[in-house]
Design goal:
Elements (H helix, E strand, L loop, with lengths): L25 E2 L20 E6 L5 E4 H5 L4 E8 L4 E12 H5 L8 E6 L4 E5 L9 E6 L2 E2 L9 E3 L12 E7 L28
Parallel strand pairs: 1-5, 2-11
Antiparallel strand pairs: 2-3, 4-5, 5-8, 6-7, 6-11, 8-9, 8-10
């Protein structure tokens, strides 16, 4: 008798709830690293976060003042345009609602900008109302540089390229201004449930 059963296939991974996985996505337990350029390494004493554009005056916080704004910890599913989804990810950061509290602006859009020159655009309504954070911790530990540390935008209801790594600020704009990937044909909005990967989707 063979010591190995032909029916043995190893331990099965739990099947994700299909209602949590957008069309065309597969669930991964890894956290793939995808970037448009080299990984910046910014010292915390040189880091600040700025909101500028269609407001006067601009506002800015150095690292310690940013942390003092108050943290929220959220557990969310994230979805990359390259078709992987990661469920139940836990992040800690400052809500964009907190950052915009008291800001008076007629802006309806935001250009998110980062170290390294990366930008992405989102409608203001997509980063307010409890929908977005500037996250500085993942899984209870400081966010690693390859995943966008010291801080990245977290907009979990949109494809993950909208959650800009190494984020340094938001520019409030009166009109929509496409960012880095959007100018190369990626969808302007990026809703994973509608499979808005590329312009025309």
């Amino acid at each position: 008798m063979s010591p190995i059963s032909r029916g043995f296939t190893g331990r099965r991974r739990p099947v994700a709830d299909p209602s949590r996985v957008p069309p065309g996505q597969y669930v991964t337990e890894d956290f793939p690293v995808l970037s448009a350029g080299p990984t910046p390494h910014t010292a915390l004493d040189e880091w600040s976060f700025t909101i500028d554009g269609a407001l006067d005056p601009a506002v800015s916080w150095p690292w310690e003042e940013f942390l003092a704004l108050g943290a929220e910890t959220v557990t969310v599913d994230i979805h990359c345009v390259t078709k992987w989804s990661k469920l139940d990810t836990t992040w800690t950061g400052v809500s964009v609602d907190t950052l915009l509290d008291g800001v008076d602006s007629a802006a309806e859009y935001v250009t998110v900008w980062s170290d390294g020159g990366y930008t992405t655009n989102v409608a203001l309504e997509d980063v307010t109302g409890g929908k977005a954070w500037v996250a500085y911790a993942y899984g209870g530990a400081p966010l690693e540089p390859e995943h966008g540390g010291p801080a990245r935008l977290l907009v979990p209801h949109l494809y993950f390229w909208k959650s800009a790594k190494w984020v340094r600020g938001l520019t409030l704009t009166l009109s929509d201004e496409p960012g880095f990937w959007e100018t190369y044909g990626y969808h302007n909005h990026g809703d994973p449930w509608l499979e808005q990967r590329y312009q025309g989707d």
